[in-house]
Amino acid sequence: MFREKASPPDNETKRIPSLWILTWPIFIEMFLQFLLGTADTLMVSRISDDAVAVVGISTQLFNAMTILFMTVAGGAGVLIAQKLGAQRPEEARTIAVMAAKISVGIGLAMSALLFFGAEPIARLMQLEEKLIPLAVTYISIVGGGMVLTAAMAILSTAVRNTGNTRSPMYIAIGMNVIHLVLNYGFIFGELGLPAWGLTGVAISTLVSRLLGTLVLAYVFLHAFHRRIGWADLRLFDRPLFREVLKIGWPMGVNMASWVFSQLLLFSFVAMLGAAELAARTYMNTLESFCFILGNSLAMAAQIRVAHLYGAGMRKEANRSAFSALWIGLALVMINALLLFVLGDRILPLFTADAAIIAIGVSLLGLNLALQPFKMLNMAMNGALTAIGDTRYMMTIGLFSIWLVATGLGYYLSIPLGLGIHGIYIAMISDELIRGVLMLRRWKLLQQPAPLAQPRNESLMIQG
């Protein structure tokens, strides 16, 4: 139950960034990443639909491998915002330094695993034999740079949760532009670069992430009230780290459930055939358009709610959470409807394969049902994460993600024969169940805490 601080001073309210100020840089960053990512997919499709399928399922693998360091980064991000909201900047700084050290260490271990174990990992994903060589190349190069992904995750999360959402935006834009230019050179043999196909795309990804990490590191060092230096590498505060893990480990379990579920669902799609796998990858790109602004609002609301929660401004936190939800739902519905109407004209831009296009078009109606429930989930997930109520989300996620999304997805798609449409039906059911339960949880937490009764009340009643 929330307990509201009495009348926070005006200057305390003003120092916390507004939802709009936090949202627009995140939106621009994500929108440009979407446009560049779409262009990236279009470029890779010029290599082959098989290359697109490999990139799609490999991305799910990489997402699964990020769970450990995202557990630390996620918990640290929430606490950084809360500590700054409570005007404890030194604690926020210490949390950021500890999280950065641990995340990078985990990333190094993952880089080694993916680089040396690319082939057995590719075979575990149930890929067709013809896709294995492409997958091994892509996983070993991009996965070998997982330490860069880990560094970028914690550095951007820490900077964003200080309220500075603009710097990660600028860095992401620059990084993706470099990636796009290098892709063009490596795929088409332009700009003096060799035509290396998917190998070139992997190298392009690695180089752009390295440059992005270097710039983010510079911003991170200057993100707090005191510059972070070499001496701070020795910082380690056990009580603060326990706070990070208290919030972070349930986030990690929940995130692991979702990511591994998605990886399994992609494996189920791969079992259906290469055409279905390519269609799912193209649909992933198109679906990003639907919720990009809604997701930006949810991310911004999480930062703002965490700051407000740390400052004890509970009513304002509640208003921010619901503002993000209602605005996000409206925008997501409009975007999903546009995709439903125009999807059959957009998909041919990615591929000329009539079978892949037909599968993608057949999924547009189901996507129209999926996106609002996904937005509900994102908004309530962000709000509950911001106040540290992550164990409830973990419990709900373990039930719904594995039994509904994964279990029902497998049953509908393969034994029942509904194919990829069965997987979509299961995903819709999962998003609906989790979204409704988390909305109910958030509303319950907004109810005023009951006043404590005097100890001698029972005696007074008896008398």
From TrEMBL:
It comes from the Bacteria. GO terms for molecular function: antiporter activity; xenobiotic transmembrane transporter activity. Its main location: membrane. One of its GO terms (cellular component) is plasma membrane. It is found in: Cell membrane. Signal peptide: none annotated. The chain crosses the membrane at residues 21-39, 51-80, 92-116, 136-158, 170-189, 195-221, 255-275, 281-301, 322-343, 349-370, 391-412. Keywords: Cell membrane, Membrane, Transmembrane, Transmembrane helix, Transport. It is a multi-pass membrane protein. PANTHER family: MULTIDRUG AND TOXIN EFFLUX PROTEIN MATE FAMILY, NA+ DRIVEN MULTIDRUG EFFLUX PUMP. This is MATE efflux family protein. It comes from Paenibacillus mucilaginosus 3016. The lineage of its organism: Bacteria, Bacillati, Bacillota, Bacilli, Bacillales.
